[in-house]
Design a protein that fits this description.
Radius of gyration: 31 Å
Shape: globular
Structural class: alpha+beta
Number of domains: 6
Helix content: 10-25%
Strand content: 25-35%
Number of helices: 12
Distance between the termini: 30 Å
Length: 728
Amino acid sequence: MQNFHYYNIIVKPITYFIIIIITAFIIPNSAFANHTTNHSIQQIQEQISKLKTEIKTLFDVRGLIFTGLSTNTSASAAALGLIPLSTSSSITPSALIFNNLIDDEDVINHNIGIGTRGKDVLALQNILKERGVYNSPTTSYFGPLTQTAVLKYQQQSNLPATGFVGPLTRNSLRETRVFFRFGYRGVPETFIIKITDAQKIAHARDILAGKIADITHVMGIIVKEPKKYNLPWNYHLKPLSIDFFEIAPEICDAGIQYVENNLAEVGGMLLPGNQWCPWGSYLIEEIKQSGQSIIAVSDFSNTASSGEESIIEGQTEIVHFDNFQRVTTSDNYFLNTADGKQFTLQFTGEELPQIRSGERIRVRGKKQANQLIINQDKEGSVEPLNAQISSALRSAVTKKVAVVLLNFQNNPTQPFTIDKARTTVFTGASSVNSYYQETSFNTFVLRGTLNADGDIFGWYTVPYNNESCQDGLWKIAAQNAAIADGFLESNYTNIIFAWPYTNSCLWEGSSNLGGSYVYINGSFELKVIAHELGHNFTLHHANSYDCINADGKRVPISNTCTANEYGDPFDMMDGNPFRSTNHFNVFNKGRLNWFNIQNTQDVNQGGIYTIVPLEKISNETQVLRIPRTINKTGKIIDYYYLEFRQPFGFDNFNPNDPVVNGVSIRIAPNYNKKIAKTLLIDTTADTPTFLDAALNLGKIFQDKKNNLTIKTIAVTSSSITMDINITK
């Protein structure tokens, strides 16, 4: 299959190309030349040009460089302009040169003036359109309209206003075209933009130099067509529309790959007006130009080959955002050093970084301005400097919690009372405190310091408007105001800040992952508060796992699977549309040391196994773990976690719900993993929902890769029994 693929994308196009070359250059010079019209020659030349473009694109995708055409019609690699990266002495992994990535429409090769026609004029008109000084059709003719636009550009650029495009103007047009690469938090994909406005170019360079730390995210208007400088994406940002922002409306937020996958919908319900403001975006680098080439200081895999190798120590700060309505989330990692500096940490690799807020760590990575790019696969890239937290048996834990209520100068409303806040967090039957007590088997309790029924401070009107999301400043102002009422930050393990909803904050809840702070934007309810506190307690999201086979049909497990953020409908750590307030799954309970040793059984051989429901304290087995992925050294990377649920308290299921009539299967690592997301397996993949994901009576789950089968053979209200077969 691989040879067939190689033939189709390399050999066959080259073969066709050689045939047309022969047709174009040999036949016209033969005895048959007299029968070849100028029109047919022009058609052949157009086909040559088209094939050249197609082959160039194929070579780009294959990691090859297409340097152009030789006039020699030999089929050699040199004649075809084909140079493999591995044999090019001028190319190194840390400085790849991508030839011909700048579109022909951007290149002015000659001096031009009034009356000129051709490609140079067309390029000039396109560039002047990008600069916003030419709004007429592109005609390839340098007439009065083009001359007027040139004069306007020359005046704006402090050039001699001659209306003629000579060396000074050509150099100026070239210099005001700068390429930058940006990424999106938490994903490996990157995107290249072209900026043509001098002020925006300077702003981007200041961001990379660490001079600007707030207005750093990229925004602009999407154009639904590919550009060579931004392959493989089928869209680009209109250069003149590109700007930077700190806060933007959530309706224009989306990830790079998500836009690509849903490009047809852009401009409608998705990203109205084609306005794109990915609020997880961050600049990575400026991409230098050399002639008509782009020299990238890091390769397409975003492995951070550029930058100064640095070792830095400091305290971590991880800010997590949840937008349940749009099903978007992000984690932002920072390192605060003893001398007052803050670095943004960008991690490469598929796994979540194994750090939590407030840890002291030493990191090794590539330093680019105020950003550190860290390869997690490299041993010693992250070293903890704190004493490690060891696993412990179940024990009572009291969390000292304060709630601080604030509002704004331009919106001093109080959408709920202090009593309502206390009931929601501490004292109500459906309060956050009641949830944590029940799901932890009464070992996890939320209390106040000044008042056993919970400490509520506020309302305080902070000296700010809510037109921009300045949650850090709001927090400090509210804390200072609360001091007069007996508030002392060191008295609390967790502090919840809440305010009336403002659309300047693009989330409902935010928190420090493994830290102490929670921020609630309007949604003062059990789901959002308990979810964000879960992040404080080091839990991450409960996701679902969507798998397909080679035919594209949904199956329970395969080699082609996608994690769906928030997609597990049975866990507090899920999100919209479920907004579940059910118990944490068994992995999350185990992470928080809510099980004793006898509650978890590791399965290393086949047999009949029984577990009891997870909702109530028990001395019997509540968790089965089957090793799933084992590395070369024999270390277990992750397990299948098996659990059983029954209607009880916050697990308010109906007796006929599939989840209480079968075993639920999830993928997760060992309990002692610092940060991890869980993945719910859909054992009934022939239906489109995960609400019936459990393996019900008589059903079989099979993982052929691991020679594993699980069959549910008995279900009662008190236990579930499975026949597990493992073939070594």
